[in-house]
Amino acid sequence: MKLQQPVPVLRMLDEAKAREFYVDFLGFSIDFEHRFDDGAPLYMQITRSSCTIHLSEHYGDAVPGGALRIQVDDVDALNKELLEKKYKYARPGVSDTPWRTREMTIKDPFSTRSRPAIAASCTPT
After folding, report:
1. Which of 36, 43, 76, 122 lies in the 20 to 30 Å Cα band around 103?
2. Per-residue buried b or exposed e for 88-109, using 16+ beta carbons within 10 Å of the residue's own CB
3. What percent of the chain has pLDDT above 90?
4. What DSSP letter does each residue of 75-91 carry, written as one string?
5. Are strands 101-104 and 94-96 parallel, antiparallel or unpaired?
6. Residue 123 pLDDT more than 60?
7. What are phi and psi for residue 35, nearest 5 degrees?
8. So what's the pLDDT on residue 34?
């Protein structure tokens, strides 16, 4: 038996804001969208490289304000890419941490913190 990487489920409270942040700003692609009917909440999967996230409008699926740590191979390049988009709601920066990583923290419109980071002492997989 082999366990796979977990797929985090994050709560979205506004579909348009979620698309603007995750697709337009962060560069994720939408893999699928699901609603039980036209008036039902949206559940969707987004992916960028090998990072997959589920976003859900369903009550009880996750909570706003959580945190997500994403391993990247070049946090400075990602930061540069994001800053060049001039997204008016986020201008992330990169810093070195006491635990020997280089990190950027960014919040989505629903207060979920994402921390793209690269470990200084190992090569990310």
Report:
1. 43
2. eebebebeeeeeebbbbebebb
3. 74
4. HHHHHHHHHHTT-TT--
5. antiparallel
6. no
7. -135, 140
8. 98
What are the two backbone dihedrals, phi and then psi, of residue 56, each rounded to the nearest 5 degrees?
-135, 135
Token pair of 80, please? 């540069």
Q: What is the pLDDT of residues 35-80, one digit of tens each?
A: 999 999 999 999 999 999 999 999 999 888 888 889 999 999 999 9
| Structural tokens at position 7 | 């797929």
Domains of the chain, first to last: 9-119 (3.10.180.10)
Q: How far apart are CA 29 and CA 19, in angstroms?
A: 10
Q: Which residues have a Cβ under 8 Å from the Cβ of 101 and sit 6 or more positions away? A: 117, 118, 119, 120
Q: What is the pLDDT of residue 26?
A: 96
Q: Assign 23 to helix, strand or coil.
A: helix
